[in-house]
Amino acid sequence: MKTNSKSVFFYLWLFLIIVCAITMQMEDHLIPKIKISQIINKENLENPKEIELLRAEIEQYLTTNMTNRAVTMDEQSYDQLSPAQASVFFRKLDREENTKLILQYMLSFLNEIPAANRTNGEMIDPVKQFQEFLQSEVALLLEEDVIRAILLEYSENGLQEADNYWHYEARVMDKRLELEYLLAEIPKEPTQTYLQLFRVLKNLCLFWFDIGREDVSQARRSDIYMYKLACLLQSKMQKK
Predict the structure, then answer these.
(1) Contact 219, 205 (CB under 8 A)
(2) For a Cys staple, 159 with which of 13, 15, 154, 240, CB 3.0–4.6 Å?
(3) 158: helix, coil or strand?
(4) The whole model's pTM is what?
(5) pLDDT tens digit string along 108-163?
């Protein structure tokens, strides 16, 4: 009898787990996913108040990220990392730093889009620097861990299968080549230069959004912010 009671309890427990899993899956399909386009289309980036709200939100995001980064670096025991782990850790920091610089530059562009500035007696070309930041972002599409993550996302979305792996790998390569070409063919005229750079950034962000099927929960906040700022600055420059 004891054995039978245990068996009944086990099958009842298993049945409840299966029911919960099915219920959660059904709820996930029933709850409509918020699309990135739905959020962006609702915003009026021509409204000065909304622009200032966006600026404040991004500045808060950057401040929080920098604080979290400092805490992570303080807590990290570098002597316990293998060379491979250390490489991954510092590469991640480099990527975050590049994204931070892009956002900071674009926030400064909200006030004025400069041709060139002088700092400490040295000539700094903001156009060239911004272009280099974007080149670093595009170059991520060359890195193995990034490609693996993209293909995994396609697979989890039910798009990539064993027999069409090459197709999605080729999509990543094609997008990288397309963006590299646009960055290499930058117009000489300053306004057109910036417009081209903003187009490249928007194009790259849309690529990331497409991978996550425009689901807000799958998108990085930094990508959403970069896309919004690129749209805003592009519109601002076109009105000049």
Answers:
(1) no
(2) 154
(3) coil
(4) 0.75
(5) 999 888 764 444 455 678 888 999 999 999 999 999 888 888 888 877 766 555 56
